[in-house]
Design a protein that fits this description.
Blueprint (H helix, E strand, L loop, with lengths): L2 E7 L3 H12 L6 E6 L6 H6 L5 E4 L4 H15 L4 E6 L2 E3 L3 H9 L11 E10 L2 E3 L3 E4 L9 E4 L8 E3 L8 E3 H7 L11 H11 L3 E12 L8 H7 L1 H18 L3 H24 L6 H15 L7
Parallel strand pairs: 1-2, 1-4, 2-3, 6-12
Antiparallel strand pairs: 4-11, 5-12, 6-7, 6-11, 8-9, 10-12
Helix pairs in contact: 8-9, 8-10, 9-10
Amino acid sequence: MKITAVVVTYNRKELLKRVIGCLKDISALSSVVVVNNGSTDGTGQWLDEQTGIEVITQPNVGGSGGFYTGIKHAYEAGADWIWCMDDDVFPEPDCLSELLKVALGQETAAPQPSIGILCPRRIQAGEVFVNECRRIDTSRTFASMHQGRLTADVKEPVDIEGMVFEGPLIRREVVGSIGFPNKDLFIFYDDTDYSLRAVKAGFRVVYVPDAIMQKEKFFSEDTWAEKQKKKKWKRRYQVRNSAYFNHHYGTTFGVRYIRTLTSLAGYLAAALWLTIGRRGYRWKDIGNLWAAYKDGINERLGRY
């Protein structure tokens, strides 16, 4: 059984070192592939000095482009399982074995071929960090897309439809069936898109709480305004890709065109307040958010 870990990185050299250190301690791994999205912080030089790691260097095409490249490479190299992660999560030594225990049916004494993707639990600053959900709603206009969000008290493996690209273990047959992540999303919703595609193709996506990854915490000392300023460039992708996802998968007019407007209203209000207060936003940023919504419902993707 060939298991390949795929790590996507961009300008987080010190965190990447920690991830690689964790992976080197997991003997069940057959290979480790690092996709370097054009880092400029010395990551490339450090990777050149490492042994036992496959490195793919490409321009910064976002997390979605990174996972597209990494999963494609691993699949074409014959991997039976592909373990994906960003550079800010750190698997515990038994994380992979706990995922495989469920995948291979060691708890039920029978293989589980319908399980296509298994997702670990993430711990951030000592607390369970969870935003996976049991079901993706594609029909109710004013309902949250993410239904049945998991909570910290989940104790047993549970089926989900919404996952994140922070530790999913993907069966080869899933890739063969649904292909690779949508690289044009850049960031946001590429993981939800992939998990929903897997579910629609008949595979189960399972959250495994006994498989643990530690997750880095960012911006913990920043004020709300400072956080908004730092995340400004991401908001366009968040709005656009939310609009794209709802439009692409929505089964009603309301979901396809109206649902994203409810969250957009909040972003626009925050942007207006920050613009008036001269806190890192300008008037054109408000226009950019509206343009992002229009891009999404017209399914115009790619990097901004």
